[in-house]
Specification:
Blueprint (H helix, E strand, L loop, with lengths): L13 H10 L3 E5 L4 E3 L7 E7 L2 E6 L5 E7 L4 E2 L1 H4 L9 E4 L3 E7 H5 L9 H25 L5 H16 L3 E3 L4 H8 L3 H13 L3 E4 L2 E4 L2
Antiparallel strand pairs: 1-8, 2-7, 3-6, 3-8, 4-5, 4-7, 9-11, 10-11
């Protein structure tokens, strides 16, 4: 993963990034599929950047109901909001959806001027602010998708956004069926049945995680 292509290091040269990584005590770690990266209830002191694979942001309530609140693909940042509030316990867990490499940055050093007085440190803070703002918008989108009462309504809301992002009726979603059901807050079996009805009604075509809106 080329870090200059990530939102956090956008607009920086490779040499600038290398110097920043030293200032920020950057450390990488690989996780197996299903392995927990950050656990609910614990504080996060570091910002995570996904280098490869995918991270799922999840929540389990006291009754055992599981929800997927979002995902982080290569280049995406996670846990930044919690890391910026010292001691704040996580309301979610972060887990590897597949074999995943993560780069961790010391948030304390991100938010304070380093002893080397890097001229590009200010750019990093601005980028972090933009990342946080985009995450807030993403949460608003999920609220929008889970607003409709029917499963079909939630699916159509989500697929509409995916098609807009893709710039056409064909798109690929980052979730398998269980993850999509968790993200939309619906039962997996009921959702799969509704997908079949939507295909029968001529609304969509799909294969695995590739979809096409019809008509």
């Amino acid at each position: 993963m080329n870090l200059s292509e990530t939102g956090l290091f956008r607009g920086m040269e490779e040499k600038e990034i290398e110097r920043l990584l030293q200032c920020l005590s950057a450390a990488g770690k690989r996780y197996r599929k299903g392995e927990v990266i950050l656990r609910e209830g614990e504080p996060a002191e570091q910002i995570g950047i996904v280098l490869s694979g995918m991270v799922l942001l999840e929540n389990d309530d006291v009754w055992g109901n599981h929800s997927v609140l979002g995902s982080a693909a290569p280049g995406a940042v996670f846990a930044e909001a919690y890391a910026c509030i010292p001691g704040e316990p996580l309301l979610i867990s972060a887990a590897a959806a597949e074999e995943t490499d993560v780069l961790f940055l010391d948030v304390g050093k991100v938010l304070s001027v380093c002893t080397n007085a890097c001229p590009f440190h200010e750019k990093l803070v601005r980028n972090l602010l933009e990342v946080c703002a985009r995450k807030s918008l993403e949460l608003s989108r999920r609220i929008l998708h889970t607003g409709p009462k029917s499963i079909r309504g939630r699916l159509l809301s989500y697929f509409s956004e995916c098609a807009k992002k893709a710039g056409g009726s064909d798109f690929v979603i980052p979730y398998n069926r269980q993850q999509l059901a968790d993200y939309l807050g619906v039962d997996r079996s009921a959702m799969c049945s509704e997908l079949s009805r939507m295909r029968r009604d001529g609304l969509i075509e799909y294969g695995k995680n590739r979809f096409r809106l019809m008509g």
